[in-house]
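Sample 3 of the quickstart, ligand zinc ion:
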Amino acid sequence: MEDVISRIPKILNSARDTAEKIQNASDIERFESEFFGKKSALSVLSKQLKELPADQKKEAGKAVGALRQQLTDLSLQKKKELAGAMQKQKWESEWIDVTKPAPANCGSLHPISRVQERVEEIFQSMGFAVADGNHIENEWYNFDALNIPASHPARDMQDTFWIQRKGDNPNKNFVLRTQTSDVQIHTMQEQGAPLRVIAPGRVFRNEDVDASHDAVFYQVEGLLVDEDISLAHLKGTIETMLGHLFETDTCIRFRPGYFPFVEPGLEVDFQCTLCRGKGCKTCKQTGWIEFMGAGMVHRNVLKNAGVDPEKFSGFAFGFGLTRLAMMKFGIDDIRLLSSQKIDFLSQF
Ligand SMILES: [Zn+2]
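Result:
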């Protein structure tokens, strides 16, 4: 019996030393096979126990049972520790930082929206309000009120999408607006004079699509009506706007132009910001960029909108937001802007 009992502490020490070194699941397996397997010291002790005389069996059996229990506890303890360590490792590797900023490819503003936002900011800083318009407009707002009666040849200047609903009076046609100038009439009717307003928005022309023409594009309409307004105010306003937009001083020039809703009518160019007027590819070697149509609001237009032309005068202008965005970002094909190509759009 002494022989059996005296070996127990040594087995236990050896088991503790081995358990100390356990790192992973296969170490556990090895531990169990070494201390519980067929050839283990425990197994040998159990066999010897059977051969002991009956009077010694009880005490020795108790000691061996206690050893078995201690070894089992040791093994369970190690399994528990290992599972905890593995769980911790898993948590650490799968941990998500919810405070981390979202990935950069979460979308961006369209180049036209970016230029539009900037243009709105600049005009707002000069006291202009931003108005919205209708995409579907009746003929009167799109043409007649702007001094373009039905017989006027200027109706042919713009290729128009006409809309007629079943059962509508054929003399009351609707159009997809061909310019943003319809907003001039609406805002003057609603607010009267004096007023300062810009109206950025989508316009529609029934024309063939190529690299520089699209059937849908964006314009910005501008209107200022007050007492004693002259072309000098127009010049100052546009130069200020372009200076802020291109973040450099720029100058503009007026050329005579014809638009039925202004008198006098002007074409406005600005000096090429790339070559500073020396001539380059962008300005086709002229040193100037054609920018917009403008002029003093025609008396008939003021009258049509209920504003007294004897008391008030004003200037109006319209420029292409699409073209401005193309110039600002160096985009050479207008079709890209409506292409929905992610690799193109994600550059902005
Ligand atoms: Zn140039």
